[in-house]
Design goal:
This protein has about 110 residues and is an alpha+beta fold. It is built from two helices and six strands, in the order E-H-E-E-H-E-E-E. It binds ligand 2BA (2 copies). One ligand 2BA binds next to strand 5.
Length: about 110
């Protein structure tokens, strides 16, 4: 068994959870925050058998889009003036950042 951890954009999270339910996969959604943008994103935990990992990965790929997002200028107030960025910078946020971990034990009580 594997645990798939997928960090996706909030905009894609409903579509992804619907697609997972439709394909009969179980998942847990956690509200999370990106360390860099400090904006909300969604982390999916999906526990599934090894032979289903590929299908889950393609469901994630098909339902999550990468987008450009503007990073607000960093305020010099109370911070280091050297790192002050006076203009918005655009970064590309990926459709999904996915980790696949082995599961040692799985129980449901
Ligand atoms: P939920 O996804 O809200 O599911 C609540 C209950 O609904 C489940 O109880 C199960 O009885 C049923 N259910 C869920 N998905 C289904 C499906 N595709 N078809 C038919 N019935 C379905 P539990 O199995 O005790 O799960 C309780 C909660 O534990 C789940 O809440 C989910 O948040 C988490 N969970 C369960 N299995 C998981 C897995 N393989 N990976 C990640 N999270 C899991
Ligand atoms: P954030 O940390 O808010 O990052 C959003 C986007 O900003 C990233 O998109 C990347 O394009 C850019 N970025 C992040 N850190 C950067 C840095 N130190 N310098 C320059 N640009 C940077 P993605 O790479 O697609 O990541 C989207 C979200 O996935 C991240 O949100 C984070 O929540 C999660 N993530 C990405 N890589 C991760 C990792 N190795 N471990 C844990 N979470 C990760």
């Amino acid at each position: 068994m594997k645990l798939i951890i997928a960090v996706v954009q909030d905009k894609d999270s409903n579509r992804l959870s619907e697609a997972l339910v439709k394909a009969n996969y179980r998942a847990t959604k956690l509200a999370s925050t990106g360390g860099f943008l400090k904006a909300g994103n969604t982390t999916f935990l999906i526990g599934t058998e090894d032979e289903h990992v590929e299908e889950v990965m393609s469901i994630i790929k098909d339902n999550c889009k990468s987008r450009d997002q503007l990073v607000a200028p960093i305020s010099p107030m109370g911070g280091n003036a050297d790192s002050y960025v006076p203009y918005p910078v655009e970064v590309q946020v990926g459709g999904a950042t996915v980790f696949v971990l082995p599961v040692e034990q799985f129980e449901q009580y």
